[in-house]
Design brief:
Elements (H helix, E strand, L loop, with lengths): L17 E5 L2 E14 L4 E9 L4 E7 L3 E12 L2 E4 L3 E4 L3 E6 L4 E6 L5 E2 L1
Antiparallel strand pairs: 1-2, 2-3, 3-9, 4-8, 4-10, 5-6, 5-7, 5-9
């Protein structure tokens, strides 16, 4: 394990937003930046997601729950509007979709891969 703090800093301003593609499905208007990649799981568990206005991510399940923090804009989850500064922790096996009318940027911590329903 490195003891150099520089090895653990992610400079998001130096990263490009990458279009979200999962299982060969391109979610138009949704972009990601990886903050923490889990080598054992071979996936990012902490990510930034940017939704352009009028976009949505389909109904899905979180087998290990999730945490999210809205950095900018507004997201609508299960009828609740989350605004900049709002935090949501969903329990294990919580099912929902995400949509936005005005766009948003969200910090997500997702311990396990989501299951599309």
């Amino acid at each position: 394990m490195s003891t150099n703090i520089q090895d653990y800093i992610v400079r998001t301003s130096a990263q490009e937003w990458i279009p979200l593609v999962e299982d060969d499905i391109h979610y138009k208007g949704i972009f990601v930046k990886s903050l923490l990649f889990n080598k054992e799981k071979q996936r990012s568990t902490t990510i930034l997601i940017k939704f352009e206005p009028g976009t949505a991510y389909p109904y899905h399940n979180h087998p290990a729950g999730e945490e999210l923090f809205v950095l900018e804009g507004e997201a609508i989850i299960e009828g609740a509007t989350l605004k900049s500064g709002d935090y949501l922790h969903t329990p294990i096996n919580f099912k929902h979709s995400v949509k936005t009318d005005i766009g948003c940027t969200i910090l997500f911590v997702v311990p396990e891969e989501v299951e599309k329903l």
